[in-house]
């Protein structure tokens, strides 16, 4: 059976994920839908950390890493703003000795060209029959499909197809994130929605007068409010067939399985066994009546008591957000985090049991991963805001004349004792670093990473084991 995975957005996280899945899960068919044309500008560079480089290995393109990366680009010289001399005041670099001794920290981390990286991922995917990337195709929304999958729609409402799992990798302007994330600043990931639904075979025989009066007059009735939703509808064939279905919606639960666990009913192994008419029916009814508390009047409670069968189903969209669509992290590391999300999600989807026999994804593990990704981004955001406060202090320093350092320590907004310590240590650290830099330069001719520089041990392990390429 082929599992259908749809990825919305052919940016850095979407294409990385597609690259790994297409190589490592041949039974999965991956479709990437991208709003922009194939020739779209991809921005500048990105210095991939261990996660990003592992992702390239797992996507089978690590052997082309240096085709899209800039040699000697992983160090930076700081000059005084007012000085025209050739000598920097300080250099931030990765000493060759430390690279060999501690590659996990000091491995090659050059600037990688985003456009070239994308082309390499696309080239590799084009060699595989299980992946398609469709450009000029915007995704507007997603809806649950009757077969349990998720259908994607374009701008004009045109269907882009039905998928067993959708990954939203549309970045900052995602049109799907509202399905998964509560507020505009990306505060919180939603849980899922579960329906307890069932049938009253003959309301005329089972229900009391108030409920019957409503059903006779309106056919379909709904109760909504205080975080509750209940819905009843006649669906019998002909006027003598009074069969009525009932839906009771729970918006705060992750899965039907966790609900059944709470009720004390074992999860069904098939659709047929999920229709409960035995002692499980009474347990579910008791649970719903308790959940209704004092909020519902007697006619709604009557409907629950009259049910002849019940089923509990997940109605959560099989949709997961990654990258900036989850929370916009942007400049200063958002791309690195997006690659990490893609790498981690792919690793989860590779695990045994990630999809069941019908091709349905194990959403609970994906939800947990999505929550961890969001938490990581929130931490990143908080640090970024902290740095922004330092930037404000720097703005206030403008126009105060030439500086002794390439940046003024006072501008960093450090609290008193930290500023004192920085004043004491920084000149000494800078002198030592500069001397070390010159030594590396004298020995090697030029400082910085090249294809022969030690790589991250985790990447090496993947390559040695044949898992990467
Ligand atoms: C100027 C600049 C410099 C940056 N420099 C760095 C850096 O040096 N290091 C770093 O780590 N990060 C950097 N970032 C941040 C980084 O670019 C983002 O965090 C990263 O691109 C997010 O990746 P993503 O895959 O989540 O989304 P994106 O890369 O934004 O990809 C989203 C994709 O989805 C597509 N899309 C959007 N809407 C739709 C739709 N409705 N239907 C279909 N497709 C759609 C878009 O066209 C795009 O191709 C920089 C950002 C900027 C703006």
Automatic annotation (TrEMBL):
The keyword Oxidoreductase applies. Keywords: FAD, Flavoprotein, Monooxygenase, Oxidoreductase. InterPro entries: FAD/NAD-bd_sf. GO terms for molecular function: monooxygenase activity. It comes from the Eukaryota. This is FAD-binding domain-containing protein. It comes from Emiliania huxleyi (strain CCMP1516). The lineage of its organism: Eukaryota, Haptista, Haptophyta, Prymnesiophyceae, Isochrysidales.
